[in-house]
Amino acid sequence: WCGFLLAALLSPRMAGLRVDFGLLLEPLGFIKVLEWIFSIFAFATCGGFQGETTLLVSCKGVVNKTVTAAFAYPFRLNTVVFNAPDPKRCGGTWTDVYLVGNFSSSAQFFVTLAVLVFLYCIAALVVYIGYKHVYQQNSKFPLTDLAITAITAFLWLVSTFAWAKALADIKMSTGASIIPGIESCKAAGTTCRFASVTSMGTLNVSVVFGLLNMVLWGGNVWFVYKDTNIHNQSNRISQSP
């Protein structure tokens, strides 16, 4: 699309900035603004998350010592280790304990798509507001916009459901269910109790914004389609006797 736009703007017959903010009140521009805003919330709520899970450990010479494992985006939990209960590591019975799972692919897919959508929306709004005449005169622009919109709607569907599944697994890998899998907690004289884990409400919100983006881009397909010559040709055929 950028190549088409550059070629069009270099054409003397079609070049020239014509700013018209009135398009933002039309569905095509208004939805694009919403898509831009929602993409910001999508990558901010997911990419900015930081949390920790906490256990209470009692072992040789230690009573209810708090041990924590801090995790964050992109959620490579298999690289996150709990700190030792004491300098002597419970008399040598405590070994490094890692969380389980690597969910970076789903998280990065979701956040990367949101960032790319954010940049695309800016470019699209520049074209809509300043170069609407170029967009309308060159039939390739609406068709390219339609293809990108349809593909983006599909990508939002895939990335959101992949991220939602990963989030469910992250909650399992940082919750109370991790204790039975910790070998150090099975040592004689050692007990472990789950204390807490950081609330993942913002991550739940990121999934909601993913779904909202999917709906927005899916609905936007129709409004972009109305600007294509395919829609115009079908209208002429239906109106002809």
TrEMBL record:
Q: Which UniProt keywords apply?
A: Glycoprotein, Membrane, Transmembrane, Transmembrane helix
**Top-rank taxon, per record:** Eukaryota
Indicate where this protein is primarily found. Answer: membrane
Entry annotated with the keyword Glycoprotein: yes
Task: Give Gene Ontology CC terms.
Answer: synaptic vesicle membrane
Q: Which PROSITE patterns match?
A: MARVEL
Q: Give the bilayer topology.
A: Multi-pass membrane protein
What InterPro entries would the database entry show? Answer: Marvel (IPR008253), Synaptophysin/porin (IPR001285)
Where is this chain's protein located in or outside the cell?
A: Membrane
| UniProt keyword Membrane present | yes
Q: Where are the transmembrane segments?
A: 109-131, 143-164, 203-225
An example of a Pfam family matching this protein is: MARVEL
Domain named MARVEL: residues: 23-229
What does the sequence similarity comment in the record state about its family?
Answer: Belongs to the synaptophysin/synaptobrevin family.
Q: Mind telling me what this protein is named?
A: SYPL1 protein
